[in-house]
User: What shape does this take?
Amino acid sequence: MKIALLGYGKMGKEIESIALGKGHEIVLKINSANGNFNPEELKVADVAIEFSRPDNVLPNIEKCFLANVPVVIGTTGWYEQLTAVREKCIAGKHTMLYASNFSVGVNIFFELNKRLAELMNPHWQYEAGMEEIHHTQKLDSPSGTAITLAEGMLQHLDRKKSWVNHSTESTEELPIISKRIDNVPGTHIIRYSSPIDDIEISHTAHNRKGFAAGAVLAAEWLQGKTGVFTMKEVLNF
Assistant: This one.
C-alpha cells in the first residue's frame, strides 16, 4: 500500500515506522515546510493519513477529494464542519474515515463508557464527570477523545443535557476537566461520584504506538471502499 502522510510530526513519524514495518511504502510526506502541496501529488498514493493541525485539516481533506484518494483523518478540532464534509464526500463518491482516536483500546473504552452510562442512568445520586490529561503540545481542549466520551454519556444519561469544559454546579451539565502536562500521551478518566462511593473507569496511553497502529489498520481496511466510515466499522462494533 502506498501511503501519503499529511502531517509529519511525532504522530506522522510513528505512523511511518509502523507502516514500513508492515511492508507499506511512504510516497509523500507533508509538513509545515511543504504544506502548500498540489492535489496532483497525492495521486501516487493509495491512501492518505491526515494527522496535521486543526487549521490545515479541511484544506487537506479537500485536496484528497480532488485527487480522489481515500483519506484517514486523525486530526481533531474541526468537527463543527463534519456534516458538510460528510455530505461532500458522499455526493462526490469519495472515501474518508475519521476518528477522534484510532487506538483499539480507546475504541473499546468508548463502548464500555456507553454501557456504563446506560447502567448509571437510573441512579441519580451519582454525579458524572470526566478528566482528561494530555501533553502541552495538544492544541484542542477538550480532546476529541473526551468529546466522543462525553457524547456517549449524553446519549444515555437523561439528567445530562450538555458537556462543558470546566467544573460546574449545574446537574444538567457534564463537566470535562482538561489538564496539559509535559510528556503525557493521553489519559481519560470517567467518574461517577455519590455520597456513598465512587465508580471510575480510565484509559491511559503509554505512548503513541496504539494511535499510529490503529491509523494504519484503518488505512488497510479502507482499501476498495467508498463512503464515510469510523473505527466502529473497522473494529466491527
